[in-house]
Amino acid sequence: MSAAERRIETVRVELGARAYDILIGDGLIGAAGREIAARLPGARAAIVTDENVAARHAAALAASLEAAGIAATTITVAPGEKSKSFSMLEEVVDAVLAARLERGDAVIALGGGVVGDLAGFVAGIVRRGMRFVQMPTSLLAQVDSSVGGKTGINSPRGKNLVGVFNQPRLVLADTGTLDTLPSREFRAGYAEVAKYGLIDRPDFFAWLERNWREVFSGGPARAQAIAESCRAKAEIVARDEFETGDRALLNLGHTFGHALEAATNYDGNRLVHGEGVSIGVALAHRFSARLNLASPDDAARVEAHFRDVGLPWRMADIPGPLPDAETLLGFIQQDKKVTRGTLTFILTHGIGQSFIARDVPASEVLAFLKENHPG
Amino acid sequence: MSAAERRIETVRVELGARAYDILIGDGLIGAAGREIAARLPGARAAIVTDENVAARHAAALAASLEAAGIAATTITVAPGEKSKSFSMLEEVVDAVLAARLERGDAVIALGGGVVGDLAGFVAGIVRRGMRFVQMPTSLLAQVDSSVGGKTGINSPRGKNLVGVFNQPRLVLADTGTLDTLPSREFRAGYAEVAKYGLIDRPDFFAWLERNWREVFSGGPARAQAIAESCRAKAEIVARDEFETGDRALLNLGHTFGHALEAATNYDGNRLVHGEGVSIGVALAHRFSARLNLASPDDAARVEAHFRDVGLPWRMADIPGPLPDAETLLGFIQQDKKVTRGTLTFILTHGIGQSFIARDVPASEVLAFLKENHPG
Fold it and tell me: The domain that contains B210 carries what CATH number?
């Protein structure tokens, strides 16, 4: 690969004392030692990863760190959402302590969202906070969890209910890792990319409509789309680091999406997170049209784009039976984005014109779910 | 009790966006509902406490909250250091989630240091951070853990190795709770009070030498000493919230103290934390004199004061046999305040003139321990 193709995009996340850089490009695992040593001189490291990612990338990362003089230990967890548990948290914390790492040392998350969420939480609580470096290896992690500092684990009472805000010191998004990603997983991550256009970047959404094939095939458009997504999220996070306001916009599609994930028992064979987001985003536009907030043409445009790229966009696209509309509404009401009992939704006035709607009547949601229910 | 005697002292902890007030005085449990409702309107609450404190104060607090319209649930843990564990953390987190509390609701720690550390950690991680109110009921907690935002649990690999920095929104230190404190526990807490004078407030130490009897007997001098201690700690914490520099001064006496606690297997019958601090502070002054940094007269003055108030001040005061000097040094080297392998001590140039000494040779520490070892 030529030097030109190896171009690295940099996105700065402006969070004052906690500002950091996201580097995006091919080959960053090989460059990790140099990049980390330059920013965290003298630090040692613990690489937290999962078995699948470890098999592909852990040796290359360890070699890169070693070449830069960074002593590292590797901690491997089982792949999948089940590793976001209290027992795994305790296990990884203990492994980091066993390696005698100190506050100035780094926890490096090498993997997808699960690894990033778990490792970031570990880094946030060992010795009340070590340094943290994210190396996301899935599209979803590169455009979503690598920006914003949300970390955590699940509780039997719900997903992501326990964790901390912990900003990384550096994010290295090696786009080369996406070449080995299963296509269904890449596509699911793409739903979050499209989401950024639909929140507040209509030009980016239009660009995706024209260029999505290139994004999928892995040319420079892919790194460009990832960088634009990171910039979009970084801007919103910089306005509202601790999610007291505007940051809720990032939940576009997530209220419906989470309910559908819960309704399918988080069974990844039926629905993975990004697919839930895809359907959720389409439903949020359709619901906005039903409430006369946006044109039905915009909803149709969103649905057409998701259909084009091969993403599910309606409840009927989920294989197997769904619970009825009342049960789905119950899942929505349980979602943690509920504030003091009122129902908050991200709705839209059109492409790239999303907003936070508070006090959405449950009766309207229920009627909408009934109309759109495939059963 | 007259209104004059019920005077409330207020100490402001200046931490920018995380600034908060410490109210100190008699009767604050009864006033808690009013004070909390005024600062956190609309919040519900979970009271975290231990069985001993619950028996004395939980009903009064619950009544005060109820009278102010604050719905509260009470979560009771076993008293003692063993509750600072991963399993108890998980249990309390689950109880808070079971009460369906949201981010804007409050976790109230009602108890000593163990309850404060555990509840503060819970508040810091449930939904990535709820509101947190401290109601310390021991002298140690009122002058130490209520200021500074350190929270956490123990690991089998050491104390306080897992946690977060989490500043409370409000601290209510009801000095009336100290009336029912066992005298040994009050005295142990006093070691931390004296420590603040010895760090950087020579006038406060001299005041304590004159007024300690009143502080112990519970007149206005007691609230005054607590307020001055909180001010002293708040000033240092405001300079260095995340312990990257000056905050280490607060560890005066703690390096020797922690080693002695470890050497006695954290057996509270032999040595409680404040007693370890008392001996540790005296040893830090004696060690400074040995290194020709301070006058032996200052060390003698500190020892005399601790002797006067009935606190242990030398290793020989610990009942039962101690491990040898080499083993004690090993405990010191394991202490988490070790940075990158060098030995850091808080030493002093005299009363109220403490400083951070880095690169203290282990050989000097060992020789000093041998000279002062009672065995």
Answer: 1.20.1090.10
Domain identity same for B167 and B249: no
The Cα–Cα gap between A190 and B200 comes to: 58
Last residue of a domain, one of B180, B197, B224: B180
Question: At A308, which helix (H) or strand (E)?
Answer: helix A296-309
Please report the DSSP string for A246-292 in residue order. GGGGGGTTHHHHHHHHHHTTT-TTT--HHHHHHHHHHHHHHHHHHTT
Compute the distance between CA of residue B213 and CA of residue B219 in angstroms, rounded to an integer. 10
- Whether the CB of A100 is below 8 Å from some CB of chain B: the reply is no
- Residue B258 designated active-site: yes
- Count how many domains chain B has: 2
**Is B251 a known active-site residue?**
yes
Contact B264, B291 (CB under 8 A): no
B 162-201 near A (Cβ less than 8 A): 162-165
Q: Chain A closest CA to B357's CA: distance in Å?
A: 19
Answer yes or no: do A100 and A11 share one domain. Answer: yes
* A105: three-class secondary structure by DSSP: coil
pLDDT at B334: 75
Size of the A and B interface in Cβ pairs below 8 Å: 77
What ipTM describes this predicted complex? 0.90
> What would you measure as the largest C-alpha separation in chain A, in angstroms?
61
Report the C-alpha gap between B34 and B140 in whole angstroms. 25
Alpha-carbon gap: B26 to the closest alpha carbon of chain A (Å):
33
Tell me if B144 sits within 8 A of B113, measured CB to CB. yes
- Phi, psi for A351 (deg, rounded to 5): -60, 120
Q: Do A125 and B163 count as a contact with CB atoms less than 8 A apart?
A: yes
Residue B108: both structure tokens together: 């109230």
In this structure, the answer to whether residues B74 and B214 fall within a common structural domain is: no
CATH of the domain at A133: 3.40.50.1970
Answer with the one of A152, A180, A208 that is the final residue of a domain: A180
pLDDT in tens, A318-370: 999 999 999 999 889 876 445 445 688 999 999 999 999 988 988 999 999 99
Do B230 and B345 lie in a common domain? Answer: yes
Residues B137-181 have pLDDT tens digits of: 999 999 998 888 999 999 998 889 999 999 999 999 999 999 999
Domain that residue A165 falls in: 3-180
> What is the model's pTM?
0.92
Distance CA A228, CA A222 (A): 10
User: Is B192 found in the same domain as B159?
Assistant: no
Å from B131 to nearest chain A CA? Answer: 13
CA distances (Å), B97 to each of B49, B73, B234, in order?
Answer: 17, 11, 32
Residues of A with catalytic function:
128, 150, 192, 233, 243, 247, 251, 254, 258, 273
Q: A174 in helix, strand or coil?
A: strand
Token pair listed for A29: 């695992």
Cβ atoms < 10 Å from Cβ of B299: 23
Pair B79, B114: CB distance under 8 Å:
yes
| Res A12 pLDDT > 90 | yes
A104 vs B: CB within 8 A: yes
Specify whether A169 is located in the same domain as A150: yes
A124 touches chain B (CB under 8 A): yes
A216 and A114 housed in the same domain: no
Q: Are residues B187 and B105 in the same domain?
A: no
